[in-house]
Amino acid sequence: MPKSRHPSSGPSEPQDVPSGAGWIPHGYTMAPHAHVAGQLVYAAAGTLATTTGRGTWVAPANRVTWTPPGFAHSHHFYGRTDARLLTIPVDLCGQLPEHPSVFAVSPLLREAVLALTGDRPERRPGAHQRLLAVAIDELSDAPEQSLHLPEPKDDRLRAATGLLHADPARPATLADLGRAAGASERTLSRLFHTELGMSFHRWRTILRIHHALAHLTSGMSVTDTAMACGWSNPSSFIDAFHDVVGQTPGSYQADLRHSPAAP
């Protein structure tokens, strides 16, 4: 866990919203904002993308996003989303990472979040606090499974990644992007590793997986999603998706259809 926190400055004063749930339409975007307390956001159905100054995290229904106090962030929702917002009091945030994260959702964590964000009244004094402690314990033990797409600061790298953001299926090589961005292939390769902590190939794969999750959530077939996101065949797409997400595109769509929260 990092020892220091570097909150992004938000467009407005940090403010908190109460824990709760609501159905969010496909394509809805929440503008950049910040919270005094920490916040967990879980898409019980649908897919959620959270963006901070450090990049974008995507969380399908088997993951939950964590944003510590003070970090400016925005949300974008793919598919009709059962969004669950859980506020974590400041005095409990020290038990969780000091940076935005995405965690695997265990069955116990899922049920705890659903209960904590539901509209059922507290039947026994302290029940909410005890259940919140269970959720935090589960998060403390859960592995970070970050579908994180870091964003660059170097102008040349920003120009190159901007081309891929505009067209994730673009079949450009690193040399092609370098010519368009005014940098050599070697320079861009070095910048991907030093600024973004990963290779060009890995960064583009995660970018394409982000778009693939959105397409799959909206009901696009696996084959059409593979073609739309730049894979030459469904088999290579399935392998890449499983490597990053931890399940095949078909099983991901099946989970969406059979989710207890799905409409």
Automatic annotation (TrEMBL):
- Region (Disordered) residue spans: 1-24
Entry annotated with the keyword Oxidoreductase:
no
Q: Which UniProt keywords apply?
A: DNA-binding, Transcription, Transcription regulation
Annotated protein name in UniProt:
Helix-turn-helix domain-containing protein
Q: Where is the HTH araC/xylS-type domain?
A: 158-255
One Pfam family recorded for the sequence = AraC_binding
Q: Where is the signal peptide?
A: none
Q: Which PROSITE patterns match?
A: HTH_ARAC_FAMILY_2 (PS01124)
Query: Record keywords: Transcription included?
Result: yes
